[in-house]
Design brief:
The complex is a heterodimer of chains A (112) and B (148).
Chain A: H1 14-23, E1 28-29, H2 30-40, H3 49-61, E2 65-71, E3 77-83, H4 85-111
Antiparallel strand pairs in A: 1-3, 2-3
Chain B: H1 6-16, H2 21-33, E1 60-66, E2 71-78, H3 84-97, E3 100-101, H4 102-106, H5 112-117, H6 123-146
Chain lengths: 112, 148
């Protein structure tokens, strides 16, 4: 399952941006990332494992996050993801592009 | 355990973080998605046989260009459209070895293939991928000899 309540082909790359933003507050394991996105979005954005983990791996391959083993709150072994300097830069540019896109969509909606 | 260049070690550490075969496959697919074909200013089709990787089922080719600072830049072509493993390895080798001096590249051994792919590949495909690493090493050695 991907992000629900949102057409997945409308805003490509949105999930990557949300993950990068979520990691901006500090390292988190996968489940905690999905949980925080769900909480902050008031349960609107529910990210499933099948989209979360491939997205995290994409971010790893691009060098935008790093990963290392750590212990979760319940003392279980978990992979913790950390935003890199390159990831922070990427987030900044993605946010700008996203705002531009949202502004353009809003303009169309307002004019219709 | 051999001493690898830091960028390559980082890739190997990343793969070690994902023992699950499905996770590793997704990771390999992510690398394969980033594959970039050799640019036309380096080589154009039909590619010379001297750049072809022996035993590689994916019909891979490799080039090592000497840069002004003395380091090497690796380029690859993978002619088999379904050569996902070869494209993934090519991306990893380019990202982790390009920009290094030839002597460091020549020291990387083909055992990295086992660490990256583990159970994700057949023995035949494994030989082809190890051959890719060997081809890169051979080019690095050639560059070293040429610069003496």
């Amino acid at each position: 399952m991907g992000i629900t309540n949102q057409p997945p082909d409308l805003l490509p790359g949105t999930l990557d941006m949300l993950i990068l933003r979520t990691l901006g507050r500090g390292p988190l394991h996968g489940y905690a990332i999905a949980d925080r996105i769900r909480l902050v979005s008031d349960d609107v954005l529910v990210v499933g494992e099948s989209s979360l983990y491939p997205a995290l791996q994409r971010l790893l391959v691009n060098g935008w996050v790093t990963a290392e083993w750590g212990a979760s709150d319940n003392n279980r072994r978990a992979r913790y993801y950390t935003l890199t300097a390159a990831g922070r830069k990427r987030l900044t540019s993605e946010r700008k592009e996203f705002q531009r896109l949202i502004g353009a969509i809003q303009q169309v909606l307002d004019s219709a | 355990m051999p001493d690898y260049p830091p960028a390559l070690q980082s890739v190997l550490d990343t793969f070690d973080l994902f023992p699950d075969p499905v996770d590793r496959t997704n990771l390999l697919l992510s690398y394969a998605d980033q594959f970039r074909d050799v640019p036309p200013d380096v080589a154009t089709r039909p590619f010379g046989k001297s750049h072809q990787v022996p035993q590689c089922e994916s019909d891979a080719y490799v080039w090592a260009m000497k840069m002004p600072d003395g380091t090497l830049k690796l380029h690859f072509a993978v002619e088999n459209p379904s050569g996902v493993s070869a494209k993934a390895l090519a991306t990893i080798l380019d990202r982790s070895l390009s920009g290094l001096p030839a002597d460091q590249i020549a020291q990387v051994d083909s055992s990295i293939v086992e660490r990256i792919f583990r159970q994700n590949i057949s023995m035949g495909k494994g030989m082809g991928l190890m051959s890719m690493v060997e081809a890169v090493r051979a080019l690095a050695r050639q560059s070293l000899i040429a610069s003496r």
